[in-house]
Amino acid sequence: MNAMNWKNLMLGTMATALLAACGGGGGSNSSSPAYNVSGNSAFGNGSSGSSTGSGSGSGSTSTTNVTSNTAGSLILALSSSTVSASQPATITAVVKDAAGAPIAGALVQFSLSGAGSATLATLSPQSAITDVNGQAASTVTPASGATVGAAYVLAQADTSAGSLSAKQAFSVTATNVTLSPVSVSPSAINGYDTSLITINLTGASSTNPVTVSISSTCATSGKATISPTTLTMTGGSGTATYQDKGCGNTSGSGSVNDLISVQVAGTTQQQSKGLTVAAPVTQGIQFVSVDNATICLQGSGCPSVANVVFKTVDNTGVAQAGRPVVFSLTNQAATLGSTSGVTGADGTVSVAVAAKRTPSPVRVIAQVTTATGTLQTVSNNLTISGGLPVAGSTNNDNGITFAAAKYSLMYSWVGDYADLTLSLTDRWGAPAIDGTVVNLVSDGGTVVPAYCTTAGGTCSVKLLVSNPQPDTGRVHVVAYAYGQEAYTDTNGDGIHESNEPFDDVRAAVCLDRDESGTISSSTLCSASEFIVGDSTKLNSGDGVWNDGGSAFAQIQHTFIFSRTDLTPRLFQVSGGACTNTAVDAGYMTVTVPAKSSTYIDFCVRDGNTNGDAFQDPTTHYVGNPLPSGTTIAAASTVTGVTFAISNQPISLLANGVTMHRLTIANGTSSALTAGTGSLTFTFPAPGYPKSTSGATPPASITLDSILTIH
């Protein structure tokens, strides 16, 4: 056999193998694929040859072209050599290496060539990456308006070993159909109803199926559905169902004309039909939210405006757009930003509510009018509250209150503490606005933290026993916040007028260390006691009514760091008041007849004589008390005597000398045998880790033989 015959034999064998691999040859296939083998093969150069296998069946013919070189092979197959609008062709490219193994991840680019190919057909996609089987695919479809013609589809594959290319011819046949006007029944529907779309055309058959697409304006925006959206017609008539999904909502309270469009694929054949869709009936209006449930009075420095949101819905609960809504208030404590509004695409509408100057609850009323009447709802309660704390010239007019769990603490125990609660009130007696900052300054111990922020008009801190500790044992704490000067609202309009009297409070905050005055005293502050404010007006106002947080609401209290490491001292009482005269043996001697009782009044100070220069501003008793909670007990060697002591334990409110009555009773029928009695002062158990002196202070102190009893 000569070389030429051997080459022809091998090419024929290769074509037969490809034919078998691609499904050619005899059988009952629906198409008769033709295979075209060309290019340089592994067997050497030679002229191209062809081998065609055919199978019985009807329909279009599929074609395959195989190209091979040293880089491998490219098989290009068309599912049909004839392309129409109703029957696009699938293009499959298979890329293999020189050993015949599929190449995955290769880029394959598809294109058209031939005269007029750009207006004859389109490819989608125009490039693809091969899969694990070495395959990449595209689709060729007649271009819009194309009639008849032929062109090549080309495939170019790039591999690491080189490039491969192949091309295959195809023809385009015209789709000769005529689309009749579209009908919809009914032509007008209520909200959420359905309509039947009927499509009629000529030229479609089982051998020439035609694809028709159906769409509408509302379906595109999600306000309606069309099912199906694509029909493959082999006869003269087809139907689809239109379902409203709120299309009428787009026009407010009226109806819309939704344009339904029908298009025959691959042709210019198109028909449109309008469908009237009524807006759904408004079924309800709902309160949705309010961003600030509590708003503050005008001029208080916190948000005084709230935004209230409502929503209109139809009978399916779907939001309705374009609905006019009218607003009003349940009272006149606030103003509305607008008396009406229109719902947006999400069915909601909002209105601003601004507080005036009077605290009050208020609600917003929202109304929407329908064909059958008026629908109404109200918002949740809004609270107009929380003005600034009132700054008055006396404690009675002041809007800041200072309360402590106890006022007399134990000097000798580091960590003993008192809980301090600050209450702030506006001029209407309502809690001051949340978030008001109260600052505290002391000249002894530690205030933890040094400021607090109100919630519900109150906030709390602790006063801890710690260094520094004044020698006097008297610790002064001042609390202050920015507020509004008190005034007399003569006309009751909630607004200060220029002719209305007001408290021109001190323009400075001071810590009255020497306890020289009260909040209204003209001598309260000295330069050394100044903390904040106007240092040129330590004891006077600025002559202007101050609003919006430019005045100080302030209050001061005195706490005692009582000396439990020193012996308590007793003083005489005269005329119901404590004196500076210490008790003596004569004062503390009593005679108690049979079946009777008597008493001794005395005052108690701690052992710190440095505190004797001060007096409690309420009781005017001089000196420092024992710690709050201290108990006093009496005992005697005299038989038949019983004791009772008033005002003990020492009050939690004590911040000055305490007065007590010691009652001595003789329960016997005879005179008492002379003897003595003692007083024992037991201090609260602190439970703290150490004392200021380093030594453990006594738990109690007893004054032995302080009493003489007959």
What distance separates the N and C termini?
159 Å
Q: What level of helicity do the residues show?
A: under 10%
Please work out how many helical segments DSSP would assign: 3
Q: What gyration radius follows from the Cα positions, in whole Å?
A: 51 Å
Q: Give the count of structural domains.
A: 5
**Sequence of strands across the biggest β-sheet:** 2-1-3-4-6-10-8
Compute the average pLDDT.
82
Number of separate strands: 54
CATH architecture heading of the largest domain:
Sandwich
Could you tell me the CATH topology label of the largest domain.
Immunoglobulin-like
Largest sheet: 7 strands, mixed
The CATH class designation of the largest domain is: Mainly Beta
Q: In terms of per-residue confidence, which ranges show pLDDT below 50 for 5 or more consecutive residues?
A: 1-60
Query: Which superfamily, in CATH terms, is the homologous superfamily of the largest domain?
Result: Immunoglobulins
**Which percent band covers the strand fraction?**
over 45%
Overall shape: it is: elongated
Structural class: mainly beta
Mind explaining what this structure looks like?
It is a single chain. By secondary structure, this protein is mainly beta. It has five domains: 3-172, Sandwich (Immunoglobulin-like), CATH 2.60.40.10; 178-278, Immunoglobulins (Immunoglobulin-like, Sandwich), CATH 2.60.40; 284-385, Immunoglobulins (Immunoglobulin-like, Sandwich), CATH 2.60.40.10; 396-562, Immunoglobulin-like (Sandwich); 569-709. Helices cover 4% and strands 46% of the residues. It is built from three helices and 54 strands. A seven-stranded mixed β-sheet has the order 2-1-3-4-6-10-8. Strands 34, 36, 38, 40, 42 and 45 form a six-stranded mixed β-sheet that branches. β11 and β12 (162-172) form a beta hairpin.
